[in-house]
Amino acid sequence: MNRTESKTKLKKTRTGIFDVINTAILSIIAILCVCPFLYIFFIATSDGTYLTKGQVTFFPKGFQLESFIYVLTNPRFDIFTGMKNSVIYTALGTVVAVVMTYITAYALTRPRLKQRYFIMTLFVVTWVFEAGIIPQYIVYSNLGFIDNIWVMIIPGAINTQFLIITKAFLEGLPLELEEAAFVDGATDIKAMNSIFVPISKPIIATIALFNAVSIWNQYLVPQMFLKTASKKTIQQVLKSVIIGAQESPFSNTIVNGVTLNQENLKAAAIVVAMLPIVCVYPFVQKYFKKGILIGSVKG
């Protein structure tokens, strides 16, 4: 009995040591990941006078929020136009991508679709052997996507990676669910909507979040195809703010007794560009964690 208790105690001790080490390592990684974002925020909220003198090493000095107000209200930056466009592109693109990806994955997991393996092979081949930027430009041009906002939505409607993950999830669900729905007189669409969609919330949230982040951070596609200033995304505006500040430096500006310089304003623009997509995550966090586990196990 004593020997058994000793083994149990030793096992608990080892487990406790592992938990402590694991927690310490993960905490260090988390801090290293968060620090760059905190540093940018602290630069944005520091008084420009201290920045000019090089007195801000990490934590802000002369805390202020005028830099954000200045960036958002100054017509030179046109942040609101970029934010509005990116919100529209991201919301619409995410909805279209999730719907198209889920419907396609659902169809490709139905045994009665005889060509499903061939169709999936085509998706994988076009994903692996991507033609490149120049052929992409020629094709998009012929399709009328030049200076067309749909270039941000339609081409990325079905991402093969997310299609594979969604397909793997649906293949793990028993076919008896669908058969029972058909017995009750349900159609394919009704069976999908009433049975499979409700239990697919984790994977839907996962692909929705990844699509939203991808569209929001997209720079190359809008830079290549969206020519009109009123259609530019937040990433294009952010590039103009950062690169423009280097080519044509901002002169120090005093707003409500606070000195703002180009370091303030660039950092504030970066924070503003990141904030919307960061705010979305807490609302899908519960489903996102489940979806990641599903993808790692079944994918």
CATH class: Mainly Alpha
CATH structural fold name: MetI-like fold
Please tell me the total number of domains.
1
CATH superfamily: MetI-like
Q: Helix segment count?
A: 13
The rounded Rg comes to 25 Å
Q: Are there runs of 5+ residues with pLDDT below 50, and where?
A: 295-299
Major sheet size, sense and barrel closure: 2 strands, antiparallel
Description of the structure:
- There is one protein chain.
- With 299 residues, this protein is an all-alpha fold.
- The radius of gyration is 25 Å and the shape is globular.
- The protein has one domain: MetI-like fold.
- Helices cover 71% and strands 2% of the residues.
- The two termini are 45 Å apart.
- It has a two-stranded antiparallel ribbon.
- The longest helix is centred in the N-terminal third of the chain and has 43 residues.
- It contains 13 helices and two strands, in the order H-H-H-H-H-H-H-H-H-H-H-H-E-E-H.
- Strand 1 and strand 2 form a beta hairpin.
- Helix 10 runs antiparallel to helix 13 and helix 12 packs antiparallel against helix 13.
Which features would summarize this protein structure in a list?
13 helices, 2% strand, disordered C terminus, 299 residues, 71% helix, two-stranded antiparallel ribbon, MetI-like fold, mainly alpha
